[in-house]
Amino acid sequence: MIDIVISNTSGIPIYQQILDQISAQIIKGEMHPGDSLPAIRTAAKELRISVITVKKAWEELERAGLIYSMVGKGCFVAELSGGDLSEKRNELFGRRMDKDFAYYKELGLSLEEIIKAIEARYR
Amino acid sequence: MDMLKVTNLNKRYEKFHLKDVSFTLDKGYIMGFIGANGAGKTTTLKSILGLVHADSGEISVLGNDFAQNEMALKQQIGFMFGGVDYYAKQRMSAVTDVVRRFYQTWDDAEYQRCLKKFDLDENKKIEELSDGMKVKYALTLALSHKAELFLLDEPTSGLDPVARDELLELFQELIEDGDRSILFSTHITSDLEKCADFITYIENGRIVASETKDDLIAMYRIVKGAKNELERIRPNLISYKKHSFGFTGLIKTDNLPGGMDLVAEAPTLEEIMIYHAKKEADNETAVI
Amino acid sequence: MKQLLYKEFKLAINPLYYLVALLSALILIPNWPYFIALMYFFFIAVPNIFATGKASGDISFSVMMPVRKRDVVGSRILSIIIIELLQLVAAGVFALINSVMYPGGSNLLDPNFAFFGFAFIMYAVFNVIFFPMFYKTAYKVGIPVILAMVVAVVFAAVVETVVILVPAVQVVLEAPQYIGVQLGVLAAGVVIFIIANYVAYKASAKRFERLDL
Predict the structure, then answer these.
(1) I need a surface site. Which of A27, A70, B193, C112 has the fewest CB within 10 A?
(2) What is the ipTM of this complex?
């Protein structure tokens, strides 16, 4: 079973939180290929969020190639080899980095400053 | 599939005008209908059911024109208007005995199941029920006649936070299988933050927005800035409030200017409502 | 319609008001304006039934059901007619007893066939005024009920006054040899009652359907 924890005050859109958490669980191998995801409407009810939000998260997961859907049966974790997974991981990482970097540049941070800040946080 | 489609509904009263109200509710979703008191929520809901005669406009339920198929379509509509204060002196069992005869699809087993689930004692009089139980009773009746469209006017008003939470959870349960839709009006926006898929927002008789909740929130931003920023951004703001250190205002995300020293964050539904209401109030003052 | 009528008698109309029919027993009083015995129906039953309806949200409830609006009006009018007929049937029984108790008749109109003809007309007058006026708002009971009541009472008073002032009329309305005339009055009363109720229903339904509820 997957774990999803939603924060209503984090400022991060809820679908994004779901997307991030499930992606991480798939990439880290906590969810295995063929594992089924809960039905959209069930998940919405359980998480007390709107159906549309869950739908959006599931759609994004499918677009990222992490899950696939079968009409009438639901959604399943995609058959991804170890290589695929690290590729997906890099892809997600890259996408997030792009977004974050755009923001850092907007703030006028230099590469050195960014690297320094990352190092400080990674420890 | 459209469960409910409202197109260009108009109704003119002496002091109030419902103007070109249009929105669509898909099958299997919850739509919150928000707006201040007197914004036209109840009038709209009543027009949908033909209780108020619209001057113009069309209503269709499950793809059928409501005016032409009123009797058949009402079979599929569950309603709750203005609290369930009908026949307050009567026992629930007596009211049910009457209601069941009106519906071809009445299912007694389902009725009994709901009574049990909601912990309702049929022998109680309507006036003995708490507000929360009254809503549950209304839902019991609707579920027992297999309603697919639930029109609920302020079902959560008068409920304490616990009862409200329980009811909203129930709403989500109702739509879980994707066959039912719920349109419910409320002025308590926190009701919607959780469960609503779509929000239709009415202000002074006009629909301001009818979107998925996520899109609606994404459409607007709350901006905060210093006083000297206000002049530049003022024309873009829907409305704003000044305070001694600066201002806070609501803006359409598309109108957010770049290159300014502003804090822009996602609004709550309540903030969207408050700033739109403020705009209406400002406009009125301007006219005077 | 059937369901609405069921609703009227099961939920909307307190059975107590059928008992108003028992006030027809006042017909056993000697030498009395017997129309009064029939007036309690609109003195007591009608105002109370409609006031209770208002308090219990009867109309709001009914129009939500899968029914035609005109049937909401029709069922209510029909249920009131049923109570009126109940009242008249009870009055008929007491009138029979009256005729046995007082073979000499009374100074006013005796409770005979002609009396019941006029009674039907009195109810017809009440209904044709009250219902269309009430369903103009489906809310305000007071003025319509008072106006309808006053006109119905005036009608009964005129009949009694004519009976007192014009002996010939009393003879025609009471003497056994004029039984044909008396039956004619009854028949005319019934016809007027039917027509008036139909008119009342049509006008009421039309007004009610126009209402914003």
Answers:
(1) A70
(2) 0.84
Instruction: Classify residue B83 as left (phi > 0), alpha (psi -120 to 50) or beta.
Output: left
Provide the domain count of chain A: 2
User: Domain holding A31: CATH number?
Assistant: 1.10.10.10
Give residue C194's identity as a one-letter amino acid code. Answer: I
- CATH number of B2-204: 3.10.310.40, 3.40.50.2300, 3.50.50.60, 3.40.50.300? 3.40.50.300
Contact assignment for C213 to B81 by CB distance below 8 Å: no
The 10s digit of each residue's pLDDT in B216-241 is 988 999 998 888 888 888 888 899 99
Q: Are residues A94 and A50 in the same domain?
A: no
Question: B1 CA to chain C: closest CA distance, Å?
Answer: 23
Distance from CA of C42 to the nearest CA of B (A): 23
Chain-chain contact of A50 with B178 (C-beta, under 8 angstroms) = no
A40 → chain B, closest CA residue? B176
- Please, where are the H alpha helices in chain B? 41-48, 70-74, 92-99, 108-117, 131-144, 161-174, 190-195, 213-219, 227-233, 269-287
Say if the Cβ atoms of B214 and A42 lie within 8 Å. Answer: no
Query: pTM for the complete prediction?
Result: 0.85
